[in-house]
Write a structure and sequence with these properties.
This protein is an all-alpha fold. It has a domain of 157 residues: Butyryl-CoA Dehydrogenase, subunit A, domain 3. 62% of the residues lie in helices and 3% in strands. It has 26 helices and five strands. The strands form two sheets. A three-stranded mixed beta sheet has the order 3-5-4, with helices on both faces. Strands 1-2 form a two-stranded antiparallel sheet. α19 crosses α20, α23 crosses α26 and α24 runs antiparallel to α25. The termini are far apart.
């Protein structure tokens, strides 16, 4: 396609079919009006939750009714906005939904604090009513916060601070995404703009001088703002520590892991086990250096492709069939459902003007689990993206069909497992189809690079977060020099002694947006570890192992993530899943070394 089409030029067959949410905009408008009318009905229950089981049941059933409608309205508005953000009707629809949703959410905000203030004896009396059994998960999750909930006035003050608490994150985003101008980089093909999005692709350029200048020019701009960036990150860390102490948690990390009921030992096991296997990562960089013919591999050489001559051309429909073939071990229901959805209305397939970039899956209780793609047939990565988002969608599909609305929604901790699991099966399938040649070398290097980015790198980020939060909790100040020194110690450990690490790289710790949503990145590392272990278990097992995996997909939000993953067959409280992932990494290293013909030097 020579130009990016307008939305109106995209064939209907290439768009998602949102009629499972709403058949037309008028139906959506009627429901938006209906949602607004719930505000008064909700308010009538304020201060009354403890009066009787009848009242509590009525309110909980009303909240399900409201939540189901609000989610349906919100997903439709978000999906329409995502398909063309420049359309004024889409902008208006989403804005009006947010206004009504905000009012309704405010009206419902009394529920958790009021429930938590009901005395234990009265709670037990209310919960003896069998009608409340269907809400047991909801009640348990809310009441679990009781020891960390303050009085009404203190909670009100904390709530009033929420907008101000976003200042560091918003300022960071404005600085790095808007105010910082990285200029252009001269390449043999001509000048190319340097930006947050183009930085990665320029580091894949075949010309080493282009890669070096890209790296230096990019980080020199960060160096010019290092004091501001350090102050913003330090302020965000101090806020995390303050909030955890106000609520009575022992640390900021404990507070952030509490909602998912993840023990801190999971975090520590991850870091310890990855560190134990860092020699494998160092070996990879040695293989890369020899394959590129570089005696002095630098950090800006770690992303350039090892198979530059590879070209692919995979039409969307062919990609769907390849993904379906790869997922055959999951059985006919899974494969037929996903194939049907990918070909018939779940997916908005290709780029159009105004469409959101990237990809996502948006599953809701009502309607199909839709997928946004910007599929390109000339990159195999988009086939893996399709498998990944299909994993999210099928997770939602099974969760909806096996849970009531109030606890069908699963956590990010679990979501990353279901999506990455599909990528593992696809990789296994493609490697079987390509026993040799350039495609096999590409696939092996891609698998290793994905594991480095998701397992090793995110663990390094998680370790950095833990160290800088602990420093503040121990009474130390975070400065430019202390942050860079901490990061230097980590990159030296993770990259090893044979990779050149320019001092500018110590600024990387100041440019990661996830750090403003603290103690989040470790979930990527645990997710890929669980997915690798489970995919191997399913591929090597039989009906029992497959059924265990489906028990996980069907559990939705009815269990905490550690418990739901145990259903599938992995225990994330133990280091074994990380070790299994490292064993796969070692196998892929051996295979890549053989494919490249670059044996180790002894």
């Amino acid at each position: 396609m020579s130009s990016i089409p307008q939305r109106t030029e995209v064939p209907a067959a290439d768009r998602w079919d949102l009629s499972t949410l709403y058949t037309d905009d008028q139906q959506w408008e009627a429901d938006l009006k209906r949602l607004g009318e719930y505000e008064q009905r909700i308010a009538a229950y304020r201060g009354r939750l403890a009066e009787s089981a009848d009242t509590l049941v009525e309110y909980l059933r009303l909240s399900v009714e409201v939540g189901t409608l609000e989610e349906r309205l919100g997903y439709y508005a978000m999906l329409r906005q995502s398909e063309d953000a420049g359309d004024s009707d889409n902008q208006s629809r989403f804005g009006r939904f947010m206004q009504v949703s905000s009012r309704v959410s405010t009206a419902m905000s009394f529920f958790a604090p009021e429930l938590q203030q009901i005395p234990d004896e009265r709670i037990q009396q209310l919960r003896s009513d069998p009608r409340l059994e269907e809400f047991a998960v909801t009640l348990d999750k809310v009441l679990r916060y009781r020891p960390y909930t303050l009085g009404p006035q203190e909670e009100k003050l904390l709530a009033m601070q929420e907008e101000a608490n976003q200042t560091a994150s918003k300022a960071f985003g404005a600085l790095v995404d808007v105010d910082m101008d990285f200029g252009t980089v001269d390449t043999p093909e001509g000048p190319r703009p340097l930006s947050q999005s183009s930085f990665g692709s320029l580091l894949e350029h075949r010309d080493r001088d282009v890669r070096k200048r890209t790296f230096e020019q990019f980080y020199e701009h960060y160096d010019g703002h290092r004091n501001t960036l350090a102050a913003l990150l330090g302020g965000s860390v101090q806020l995390d520590v303050y909030r955890s102490r106000v609520r009575g948690f022992s640390s900021a990390r404990e507070a952030r892991l509490f909602p998912d009921r993840v023990p801190e030992s999971v975090y520590d096991n991850l870091i310890a086990t990855v560190r134990e296997h860092l020699p494998l990562l160092h070996r990879y960089y040695g293989i890369r250096a020899r394959a590129l013919g570089l005696p002095d591999l630098a950090v800006y050489d770690t992303r350039v492709s090892l198979v530059p001559e590879l070209t692919v051309d995979t039409p969307y429909e062919e990609a769907v069939e390849t993904v379906a073939d790869a997922l055959a071990p999951l059985g006919d229901e899974y494969v037929d459902t996903l194939r049907g959805g990918l070909l018939n209305g779940w997916v908005d397939r290709y780029e159009n003007r105004g469409k959101r970039s990237g990809a996502f899956s948006a599953g809701s209780y009502v309607g199909d689990p839709y997928i946004l793609m910007n599929y390109k047939r000339d990159t195999i990565r988009d086939m893996f993206t399709l498998a990944h988002e299909g994993g999210h969608s099928m997770h939602s599909w099974y969760s909806v069909r096996n849970n009531p609305f109030q606890h069908y929604s699963y956590t990010i901790f679990e979501a990353e497992v279901a999506s990455t699991f599909n990528e593992q099966l696809l990789m296994h399938h493609l490697l079987d189809r390509h026993p040799d040649g350039a495609m096999r070398t590409y696939l092996l290097s891609k698998h290793l690079e994905d594991m480095i980015g998701t397992l090793f790198r995110q663990t390094m980020f998680a370790e950095f977060e833990h160290l800088i939060h602990r420093a503040v909790e121990d009474g130390d100040a975070l400065t430019v020099d202390s942050l860079r020194a901490t990061y230097r110690s980590l990159i030296e450990a993770y990259f090893g002694p044979d990779v050149q690490l320019p001092d500018l790289l110590t600024l990387e710790g100041l440019r990661i947006p996830h750090f403003y949503r603290s103690f989040y990145v470790y979930k990527y590392a645990t997710g890929i570890s669980a997915a690798i272990g489970l995919s191997r278990r399913v591929l090597e097992g039989g009906d029992t192992e497959r059924n265990d995996y489906f028990a996980f997909l069907k559990s939705g939000g009815s269990r905490y993530p550690i418990d739901s993953l145990r259903l599938a067959g992995v225990d994330m409280e133990e280091p074994e899943p990380i070790r299994v992932a490292m064993d796969v990494f070692r196998q892929r290293l051996d295979q890549l070394e053989s494919a490249l013909g670059t044996p180790r030097e002894y």
